Amino acid sequence: MVFYTLFEIVSYLINLLVMLVIVQFVLSLLITFNVVNMQNEFVRAIWRAINAILDPVLRPIRRILPDTGTVDLSALALIVGLSILQIILKNLAFSAL
User: Fold this and answer.
1) How does DSSP classify residue 68?
2) Which of 23, 35, 55, 70 is the right S-S partner for 30, CB 3.0 to 4.6 Å?
């Protein structure tokens, strides 16, 4: 039962990280297409906070993946990796019950 509780906590954190990656992606599109302006202090603060959280996680993935030019696939690789980790942890949690 304890392992299932730990799985629930880790699963929640994984979902939070995936949502943060999606927010970063959408915000980068909004900045790229000039829907929101980086001159705005609030936008700049949100952008810096998200990047400060995600850069330490995405940097090792960027080193491993080949350079694709302007397309950054590290966020997609992170989401896929986290989903696989979540499946593995779920199966371990249910097998421990």
Assistant:
1) -
2) 35
Beta-carbon neighbour count of residue 74 at 10 Å?
19
Instruction: Give the pTM.
Output: 0.87
User: Cα–Cα distance between 19 and 77 in angstroms, integer?
Assistant: 14
The domain tally of the chain equals 1
Query: Which residues span the domain enclosing 38?
Result: 2-66+73-96
Which residue is listed with tokens 């909004």? Answer: 30
Distances (CA, A) of 1 to 12, 14, 93: 17, 20, 8
Instruction: Provide the token pair at 53.
Output: 């959280």
Q: If you search the block for the tokens 């995600």, which residue do you land on?
A: 54
Q: What is the DSSP letter of 40?
A: S
Rounded-to-integer distance, Cα 37 and Cα 43, Å: 7
Residues of the chain with pLDDT under 70: none
